[in-house]
Design goal:
disordered N terminus, single chain, 726 residues, five-stranded mixed β-sheet, alpha+beta, DNA polymerase, domain 1, 19% strand
Length: 726
């Protein structure tokens, strides 16, 4: 058998909508936990390569199914909230993560996307540098003096580690010739030799030994005592910048040379390349040297060199369009499959999970693997074609675990020569393992679903977990574990979102009941939250206060938190931006008719909203049970209107703009981004509410409809003249 066997993976293009929904749900839950473990606790549950590969798969699925995007998706996560114990620092310029490439084709795709966005047929240069496996750090200098150092945190707020950063020899305390404000960004790391020596010292004194150099570096930088950090052999490579009072250079490479001149270490393997062939060649060169570098890297980062082009390319929600990380391959391992468990998700999807004898894969101990659906277990893909040579997966099998492109491992192969004689084909349950309701697999769908709805405890619990997830209400102290406990509680149960917001009142009511009983009631005393195991007066009060803090919450978070099928984080933001207030949104959804009428047309005019999602939103507001739950929740809240851009002086602020035909002086993506930055609402179709149609060559039915409705129509030059100077 070859070292790297062929692994057939269900690609995003082959996933059904239900498969994609289940996949994204798993990614949101597990990557959210992985972010906390890796970025804040320095105890990663999955390797860096696997984490980044999961983000890549997540992004690919979201690109095909944009309406399914979840807030806990890796696409919307940058690091993790800052750890307690340090003061907090707000980054003047967000510290973002990178998109990923795993294959040469991905690099070609990156270059093609850059060219497509820019519409630039000419030469584009890129820098290529090793991706250091360490901890991101931002250093702020004012008038050449180091005044602040902060970790990345969640990209917006990090931990103030200034005293610790001052102990790192690679970080200059003062620099000359720098801009008045200079924010240098880079990676704190530890060499292999220093890591081994540190663990030897730790073992000799009976202290904690670190799992790898990255954990050691992160733990050392986050010491509350800077003298401990001083004793740790930390190093620093600079690779970027944040806030600047004046530019460093016109190019990425020029800026890196300036940083070198200021006294910062810049990786010597950084190279200027033209096109994907040179990028991949340098990637191979670095890969060959990887084992001898003396420090950990997990890939190579490519960046557009021209800073003006970087500015034009701009950013997605958490990643720049002008950079990508080309990651090194993952690993494989063999182990025993002990059981197949069925998990029930928020939408009733039954997801099989393999329980494995623990095995180390890529430096991470693995005990679970995704099995996707019943077809995957049976050795078939979504089209009914064979995978793994048609070999099914059975309990007791000796299986090969593959860790790349997914948040948890998947089974790549089965060794039939080691299959136990008593192993039998796995029979997928026809009843829900949680509520025993019948399960249904619709024609053309590979996912089987529980039909129990709100009587299924698994679905209710998963909806509540979604409600308190990071992109929704994100209530401190109320995570998945607490949601499960409150759901099962008989005295202070939480069975729907509104129950969360009357939790304090119900807890106090227990005290009032006790006061009204002369002899007292032990059950009521133990029923109060502060008397429970794992809780105390301080932690209970903190939870109640955290809940109260979220009574006032932005509109887009409320929409997302409702857990409406097909409505992800991105869709929630689109709806909030369009309707602005809860009152307007609720009124529109309550009165809309499916497939007809002004409210339907208005909803469908939102660029990014399709008929499936529109129907799902309307039905959620027009089904009695669901609507009653929504009303009980909203009665407890103050929903904040969506933020509006400062567009004073913009001639298109508040107007609905539609682009059609071929644009010749900018790409469609640039045109849309520019219009939205000026306060316009970009729609995908022409309606009575359309104010401006921008029509390039090849405009068809949209131009005709605009003419019929009397909508103002501009060519590309007219549009540019309208917004000129803004």
């Amino acid at each position: 058998m070859s070292d790297t066997p062929h692994v057939q993976i269900v690609t995003p293009d082959n996933l059904s909508e239900d498969q994609a929904r289940g996949e994204l749900a798993r990614l949101a839950l597990l990557l959210g936990a992985a972010n906390i473990a890796y970025h804040r606790e320095d105890t990663p549950e999955i390797s860096d390569a696997d984490y980044d590969a999961a983000k890549r798969r997540n992004a690919a699925i979201e690109a095909r199914f944009p309406d399914l995007k979840l807030a806990d998706s890796a696409s919307d996560q940058v690091g993790a909230p800052a750890k307690d114990g340090f003061s907090k620092v707000s980054h003047a310029v967000r510290m973002l993560s990178l998109s990923n490439a795993f294959e040469d084709e991905d690099v070609a795709g990156f270059e093609a996307q850059v060219r497509k966005f820019l519409g630039a047929p000419g030469k584009i240069l890129f820098t290529a540098e090793p991706k250091i496996d360490g901890l991101s750090l931002s250093l702020r200098y004012e008038n050449g003096v180091l005044v602040q150092a902060a970790t990345r945190g969640d990209g917006e707020v990090g931990e103030n580690v200034t005293a610790n950063a001052r102990t790192i020899a690679d970080i200059p305390q003062q620099i000359s010739g720098a801009p008045e404000v200079l924010e240098v960004r880079g990676e704190v790391y530890m060499s292999h030799a220093d890591f081994a020596a540190l663990n030897t010292r730790q073992a000799a004194r009976g202290g904690k030994e670190f799992a790898n150099p990255r954990n050691a570096a992160a733990g050392s930088l986050r010491q509350l005592d800077a003298e401990i950090t001083r004793a740790r052999p930390l190093k620093f490579f600079a690779y970027a910048w944040g806030e600047l009072s004046t530019p460093l250079a016109d190019t990425q490479m020029g800026a890196m040379n300036r940083l070198t001149g200021f006294g910062f270490a810049v990786n010597p393997l950084t190279k200027l390349c033209q096109g994907r062939d040179e990028l991949i060649s340098h990637y191979r060169n670095i890969e060959v040297q990887r084992a001898s570098l003396g420090y950990d890297i997990d890939g190579v980062v490519y960046k557009v060199d021209n800073l003006e082009l970087q500015h034009r390319l701009g950013f997605r929600s958490t990643t720049p369009r002008w950079a990508i990380a080309h990651k090194f391959p993952a690993e494989l391992a063999w182990t025993r499959l002990n059981a197949i468990d069925i998990q029930v998700g928020r939408t009733g999807a039954l997801s099989p999970v393999a329980r494995l004898d623990p095995v180390t894969v890529g430096g991470v101990v693995v005990s679970n693997a995704t099995l996707h659906n019943e077809d995957y277990i049976a050795g078939r893909d979504g089209k009914g074609d064979e995978i793994r040579g048609g070999k099914d997966i059975r309990v007791g099998d000796w299986v090969q675990v593959y860790r790349a492109g997914d948040v948890i491992p998947k089974i790549a192969d089965v060794d039939l020569s080691k299959r136990p004689a008593e192993a039998v084909p796995f029979v997928f349950p026809q009843g829900c393992p949680q509520c025993q309701s019948a399960t249904l697999r619709e024609e053309g769908d590979s996912v089987r679903r529980c039909t129990g709805g709100m009587i299924c405890p698994a679905q209710v619990v998963e909806r509540l977990k979604h409600f308190v997830s990071r992109g929704a209400f994100d209530i401190d102290g109320l995570g998945a574990k607490q949601v499960e406990a409150f759901y099962k509680d008989d005295i202070l149960p939480v069975r729907e979102p509104a129950d969360i917001f009357n939790l304090r009142a119900r807890d106090l009511a227990l005290l009032e009941q006790l006061k009204n009983r002369a002899a007292g009631d032990g059950a009521l005393i133990s029923g109060r939250l502060k008397t429970r195991d794992g809780w105390g007066e301080k932690s209970a009060a903190s939870l109640f206060n955290a809940i109260d803090e979220k009574r006032s919450i932005p509109l887009h978070r409320v929409i997302f938190a409702l857990g409406i099928r097909h409505v992800g984080d991105n869709s929630s933001a689109l709806l909030a931006s369009h309707y602005v207030s809860w009152t307007a949104f609720e009124a529109a959804m309550s009165t809309a008719s499916l497939n007809e009428g002004a409210a339907w047309e208005d909803l469908m005019s939102i660029d990014g909203v399709g008929a499936v999602m529109a129907t799902s939103v309307i039905m959620a507001f027009q089904q009695d049970g669901e609507r009653a739950m929504i009303d009980r929740l909203i009665a407890q809240l103050q929903v904040q209107d969506a933020e509006q851009r400062d567009t004073e002086g913009s001639p298109v602020a508040g107007k609905v703009v539609v682009f059609t035909g071929t644009l010749e002086k900018m790409t469609r993506a640039e045109a849309k981004a520019r219009a939205e930055s000026l306060g316009a609402k970009v729609a995908g179709s022409v309606s009575r509410k359309t104010d401006i149609l921008v029509a390039g060559p090849g405009a068809g039915s949209k131009a005709k409809k605009a003419a019929d409705l009397g909508v103002e129509t501009l060519d590309e030059d007219g549009w540019l003249a309208l917004i000129e100077g803004l």
